[in-house]
Amino acid sequence: MSTPTDESSRTPNAPVRVVIVDDDALVRQGLGLILGGDGPIEVVGEAADGIEAEQVVEDARPDVVLMDIRMPRRDGIATTRVLRARPGAPRILVLTTFDADDNVLDALRAGASGFLLKATKPERMVESILAVAAGEPAFSPTVIGQVVAAATRGDAGDRRRDALTSLDALTDREREVAIAVARGWSNAQVSAELFMSVATVKAHISKIFEKLGLENRVQIAVRVHDAQLL
Questions:
Q1: What is the pTM of this model?
Q2: Residue 12 pLDDT level (bands cut at 50, 70, 90)
Q3: How many whole angstroms separate alpha carbon 125 and alpha carbon 134?
Q4: Where does the record place the Response regulatory domain (predicted)?
Q5: Final residue of a domain: which of 75, 110, 141?
Q6: Is 3 within the bounds of a domain?
């Protein structure tokens, strides 16, 4: 799966700049109403398809792009791949109507930082955008399970043995953090539940990546599920 090509250069305390990409004008309008105003998010542009999105993103320089998957001319997965390959790439939060969309893994491989249903409650959508802008992933509750299910098809016994062997490289505390990540918790949630600072959580996650040869939190979740530790 792809990893971000750079870190956000957003000015601290400035609103998160968002571009909305969806072929349904009513969806764009609705999201604009939800996210607009004087809050922590500023909608700086919108596009009706992936090709139009390229120019809008070039002009608006957003921090986060809300990306529909199914659009004419160029879909959201291909557009995510194009945008994430650019210098100064925005982070991508993919939106879908379907909670069992077959494109979840493809979107994450293309470089998306998260995946939300369009029916997500407004407050949760705002939280997810802010999390993605800060470099954390964001997923609807059903999505982590779906991603793991799609990625863990095959011989469960072999997978469990291999996963347990690899997880032996972790300390007890790192294993606790890995299990928390597999539950879909944010860094802040892990911090609160395991009584450690967010900085310590991030350090543990970095060590988990290094020890297990992984690149992102979804891969940690797959490894933990393979080991049947949840």
A1: 0.69
A2: low
A3: 14
A4: 17-133
A5: 141
A6: no
